[in-house]
Each structure stands twice: as structure tokens, then as C-alpha cells.
TrEMBL record, chains A, D:
Native organism taxonomy: Bacteria, Pseudomonadati, Pseudomonadota, Alphaproteobacteria, Rhodospirillales
Transmembrane segments: none
Matches recorded under Pfam families: DsrE (PF02635)
Family designation: Belongs to the DsrF/TusC family.
Record protein name field: Sulfur oxidoreductase
Organism from which the protein derives: Paramagnetospirillum marisnigri
TrEMBL record, chains B, F:
Record-level GO BP terms: tRNA wobble position uridine thiolation
InterPro entries (alphabetical): DsrEFH-like, Sulphur_relay_DsrE/F-like, Sulphur_relay_TusD/DsrE
Pfam families: DsrE
Protein family (similarity comment): Belongs to the DsrE/TusD family.
Organism ancestry: Bacteria, Pseudomonadati, Pseudomonadota, Alphaproteobacteria, Rhodospirillales
Main location: cytoplasm
Record keywords, A-Z: Cytoplasm, Transferase
MF terms in GO: sulfur carrier activity; sulfurtransferase activity
Locations listed in the record: Cytoplasm
Species: Paramagnetospirillum marisnigri
Name of the protein: Sulfurtransferase
TrEMBL record, chains C, E:
Transmembrane segments: none
One Pfam entry name: DsrH
Protein name as it appears in the record: Sulfur relay protein TusB
Gene Ontology, cellular component aspect: sulfurtransferase complex
InterPro entries documented for this protein: DsrEFH-like (IPR027396), Sulphur_relay_TusB/DsrH (IPR007215)
Gene Ontology biological process terms, A to Z: tRNA wobble position uridine thiolation
Organism, as annotated: Paramagnetospirillum marisnigri
Length: 126, 119, 102, 126, 102, 119
């Protein structure tokens, strides 16, 4: 793990704006997030717009022949990735509440989310 | 009834090819005929013989191949779109064939319905 | 003879559904698949628009795509019919042409 | 050309909803349209939504390193493809008029476009 | 230190630009590239929104992408600065992070 | 200044890789350094050795290769995304190398700026 320990700690944010299953981005962003855990960075996950659907409870894609990767969001805590943020306005627009989400998250207003994003050093969006 | 199917996107990145496959399977189960599946745009990437998706995920190319084996479905990859993107005879998965865009227009003419799946 | 329109994009992200609703003819069938299924659920910001659309069009949503995304087919907007892939095939066969709003 | 002459003539419509250059669809649809000419079908091209940008005059993509295929729309007439339709509402939204377009087109209202689409046997969208 | 936001999708087709405008902080730079350059032109249905946005953000548009699509860089909304790829690089260097609104 | 570049989409279907290439070229011309270009999602398709676009169009893969040759730019293809889509050592264009996703995170840490191009 030597090469991963650069001594530099940056604020990383993975911004999820896309729904799961219709495209691969949600799944492959999750793979990025898991790898990032090995680098001891300050990792943040934001779920805004259709990205909120990624952490909807009860996903069951067996009939569409696609892997159900949503349980992996629950495993993030085991990788010390605990800074998950969801936007309140986006949830309301989609008729969703915190009870619909499969992981504990911090609910932020759009204004708060914008301020948080502005503090980041590296923003990865998909 | 004879269906033609057009697949516009590559595997995994978009659900389009999965949806097309599920549609084709359901049509065959109902006794319909699949006149042809045509792969255009990034859809040509469905035909790569080199893909190795994780073992716990579906293999889109293998799904198409099985459909071709079991039901003699004609899987046609557009030659021009394939050349652009590096899908050529050398890495074409068995069960697919490479041909011209005319095969799509022909499917539109000969099939009773043409159904498109894309982005 | 009527047309089947398919829509596969989220109504919160893209204009595909709006363009479909703006061009489809009264009595046409519309099927929401993939990321468009979000438009079928009650309680969203587009639910009112869909309830209105159900008066003009025959609205359908693909159940397997709803379930994949964690939504209960019982919670769709009134007037929307849930179908499986077999139902999708039937809709394609019963209408004279299929217009995919990509 | 024997196999192309099936005796069946269908109403084909190529519906263009996407802008050129940002994605390849405009270019590859055009390749479809050109091939369709060999099959003696009743071919229609519709330009709606961002597809209208495909026939904007003055395209010059040299600096982005991309081929300028827009002159091909002018060549369609030589293939007897002359049924080109553009939607009025879409032009207005984008601040465009017929003078901005590089080929002669019939301008239809959205309602007229919807009715025309309903007459087609095969609709190809991208 | 401010952020550079890039937007590459048409404002008539997708919500990327709106989402960017809703999250960017006053003084941030926004660069329209690829199919987002349509938002920079005067006379469109979104020109008013862009003129407003120019009061809060430093708005830029990529000239090569405008020209590719047949638009005259002279016809952009007041307050929008036209840059080339070198200008894009400078914007990326001058702001502390780059947020691509994909 | 050191730039990292992330390319999310394949060649031709989206302008993303063209834009990324033009950005990289302009950065080098201004005397900046490109720490790494990382190809993820369908971006891995930029690295195919089998693409043959029409002779009157640009060759996106060759553009990247020339950048690597002239400026020793590190072009890295994600191994997992490549396996899924059929970009493997056997069809990898010279100038690209295959490695893990950690190389992207490293670019985020080591480069002064990370710029993403996608859909």
C-alpha cells in the first residue's frame, strides 16, 4: 500500500446524478468509490437529481437480467466511507423520503449541497 | 408476426441491449418470429468476442449468441459502424455476422414491426 | 391504426417524454421503459401531467423496470397499466408502428 | 439491385431529435438515409427538438477536429429524398428561422408534425 | 477559491445546465462546451435565464464548439465570454477544482 | 501545472474524447504537464487497435497515440471496465496501458486539477 500513501489528503466528492440500471454509471462510480477507500482520502458521496434513485430501497433487477449492486451502498460503512449526502429538493420532486433510502444519509438543502461541493478539491461526476 | 429489432447502444453502458434482448426473448416465447436484430452506432460493440464481464453479472454478448443458437436469429452488425469502432471479423463473436446498412432498411421493409432500443 | 410510443428516459433529466406527449395522437399507446418508469409513479412532480395524459393516451409502464428500481407496481398513477415484456410485445404487435423517443 | 426491389413501398420516417457533433447520431442517421434511397421507399426526414440544429447553416467543425458532414444534407435531393420537415415551435424556441437552414424544408406546426408521424409505417429515431 | 463548472448538454434536451446553475456559488466560472453552447446564443428561449446567470457567475462558451455548430461567436448573450481551448485550460488552471455537470 | 484527464465515453459516439484531446493538446502547448489520461466506462473503447474510421474523418485513437509519442503522456485504460467491454491486451493500441482504477484516484491526488469529459 506504499504507493497509495502519498501523505496528501484531498477532499474528494463523487457526485451521482444518474439513475441506476438504465446506464452503468451508478455501478462503475461505486467501483471508483470502493477503490478510493484504499487511498485514505476524505471521501464524500453526493446524491442529487436522478442519482437519488441509486439508493432507493427494494431494487430487484432480476427480471431485467441485471445485477443488483444496491446492497454495496450498505457496505460502504465498512470501508469508512460514511459521508453520504442527499438533496432534499430532489427527493421531494421524486416523491421520496428518507424512509425510502437504503442507507443512512445526511439530507441537505440544495443551497447547502452547493456550498459543500464548493469545498471539494476533486469532484468526480457521472 | 415478424419483428425487426434495432440496437443502438453497446452493452453495459446502457440498458438498451438488455431491453432489446428481453423483448426478443418474449416475442419468441409468444411464437413470433425475429426477422433480424441489427446493431448500429455503438450497438456494434455487442458483438465483441473479447468481453469478459464479472462472473456475477450477465454476459450480454452470450445472451445474443444463445438466442441465435436456439432460434436461428439473424444478428447483423453494421460494417461501417463496426469499422469505425473496431468491431471487425477478427473480434466478431460467433453467431453475429457483418453486413451493410441496407440490411436494416430491408428489415424495416420485410418485418411487420421494427422496434428500436437506444439512448 | 394507432402507434406505440416508447420512452426510456427519466422525465426529470430529459425532454423525451414531453416530446412524445407533444406529438402522439389521441388514442395512441405509450410505454414507459428503463429510466422513464419514474414518470409512472404517483406522488412525483410529474404525476399530475401523467394523470392528464392518461385521459388522452393509453399509458403503460414496464413492470420489470419498475421493480428493478425498487418501485411497487401498485403505486403507479391511476390510468397507467403495468405490463411485462410479453405485454410489450403485444403492444408492439397491436399497433401499426413503433416510435422510440430516443 | 434485385434484392432491394421487393415491390413493397413503405412510408419511412427518420426522426432527428439530436444536435450534430456532440454525438454521432446525426451523421450515422444520414448514412442510413442515403442507403434507404436505394430501396425505393417513401422516405421522410423530420427535424424536431435539437435535431433542427443538424441543418443549421455555416457549420465549421475544423477546430474541434471533426468532419463537416452538413453539406451532405444538400446532396439528398440528388437521391430523390426531398421530403424534409422542420417543426416551427422548435425553431422558435432556438431562435432560428428558415433563413438559418441550409436546405429547403417544409415547416410544420407541432400538431401537423404529430399527424404526419402517425401516417408512417416505419419510424427510425436517434 | 472559486470552481470551474463545465456543462456539455443542450439546455433544450437535458437538466445539466439547470442543475449547474442551481449548485454553483456566486463568482464561480461556468464554461459551456459541446452541445451546451446553444445556451450561449442570444434570441433563444433560455437567453433570459443566461443573462440573469451572467450577473452571478462568470459565464464562458467554447468558441470552436460554437463555430462547429454554425453559430457566430459575436451573437452570444451579453455577459458571456468566448474562449478557445487555450482559454479552457486557463480557466481550469485558475479555479481550484473542475466540476463537470455530466 | 499538472492536469489529470478522465475520459468517460468511447470515440465517435460522443464528442467527449475529442474535447479531452483538444484540451490536452492546448494544455501541453501552454507548457502544462499532463500527469495522466484515464479511460473509464465506455472511454476504454478509445484504446482499440482495430478501429478504422473513414479516411476523411479523424482517427481518435491515433490522436491519443500521437500525444503519447510526442509528449510521453500516460494513457491508462481501466482493466475492469476494459474486460467488461472487450478492450484487453490483445486489441490494445500501442501507447495505451491497462491498469487499475487506483490510477485514477492517484491522478486525482497527484495532479493539480482533474478534468472530466463525458456524456
Amino acid at each position: 500500500m506504499d504507493e497509495m500513501d502519498s501523505g496528501i489528503v484531498k477532499k474528494f466528492m463523487f457526485v451521482n446524478r444518474k439513475a441506476p440500471h438504465g446506464t452503468v454509471y451508478a455501478l462503475e462510480v461505486l467501483e471508483m468509490v470502493l477503490i478510493s477507500a484504499a487511498f485514505d482520502q476524505d471521501v464524500h458521496l453526493a446524491f442529487i437529481d436522478d442519482g437519488i434513485y441509486q439508493i432507493k430501497k427494494g431494487q430487484a433487477p432480476a427480471e431485467i437480467g441485471v445485477k443488483n449492486f444496491s446492497p454495496t451502498y450498505r457496505a460502504l460503512e465498512g470501508y469508512d466511507i460514511e459521508k453520504l449526502y442527499v438533496e432534499a429538493e430532489g427527493m421531494a420532486e421524486r416523491g421520496l423520503t428518507e424512509d425510502d433510502l437504503l442507507v443512512p444519509v445526511e439530507v441537505l438543502s440544495r443551497a447547502e449541497m452547493g456550498k459543500l461541493m464548493a469545498e471539494m478539491d476533486v469532484v468526480l461526476t457521472a | 408476426m415478424k419483428f425487426g429489432i434495432l440496437v443502438n447502444e453497446g452493452p453495459y453502458n446502457h440498458q438498451a441491449s438488455d431491453s432489446a434482448y428481453q423483448f426478443a426473448k418474449a416475442a419468441l416465447e409468444k411464437g413470433h418470429e425475429i426477422f433480424r436484430v441489427f446493431f448500429y452506432y455503438d450497438g456494434v460493440n455487442n458483438a465483441t468476442s473479447l468481453g469478459q464481464p464479472p462472473s456475477d453479472d450477465r454476459n450480454v454478448t452470450k445472451n445474443w449468441q444463445k438466442l441465435a443458437e436456439d432460434h436461428k436469429v439473424d444478428l447483423v452488425v453494421c460494417v461501417a459502424a463496426g469499422l469505425r469502432r473496431g468491431i471487425v471479423e477478427g473480434n466478431l463473436a460467433p453467431g453475429f455476422r457483418i453486413s451493410g446498412l441496407g440490411q436494416l432498411i430491408e428489415a424495416g421493409i420485410q418485418a411487420d414491426r421494427l422496434v428500436t432500443f437506444g439512448d | 391504426m394507432s402507434v406505440l410510443h416508447t420512452v426510456n428516459k427519466s422525465p426529470f433529466d430529459r425532454n423525451n417524454l414531453d416530446s412524445c406527449l407533444n406529438h402522439a395522437q389521441p388514442g395512441d399507446a405509450i410505454l414507459l421503459i428503463e429510466d422513464a418508469v419514474f414518470a409512472a409513479m404517483a406522488g412525483t412532480a410529474v404525476a399530475g401531467k401523467m394523470a392528464d395524459a392518461a385521459k388522452t393516451f393509453r399509458l403503460h409502464v414496464l413492470g420489470p423496470d419498475l421493480k428493478a428500481r425498487g418501485f411497487d407496481p401498485a403505486g403507479v398513477v391511476t390510468g397507467v397499466t403495468v405490463v411485462d415484456y410479453g405485454g410489450f410485445v403485444e403492444l408492439a404487435a397491436q399497433n401499426k408502428a413503433i416510435n422510440a423517443w430516443l
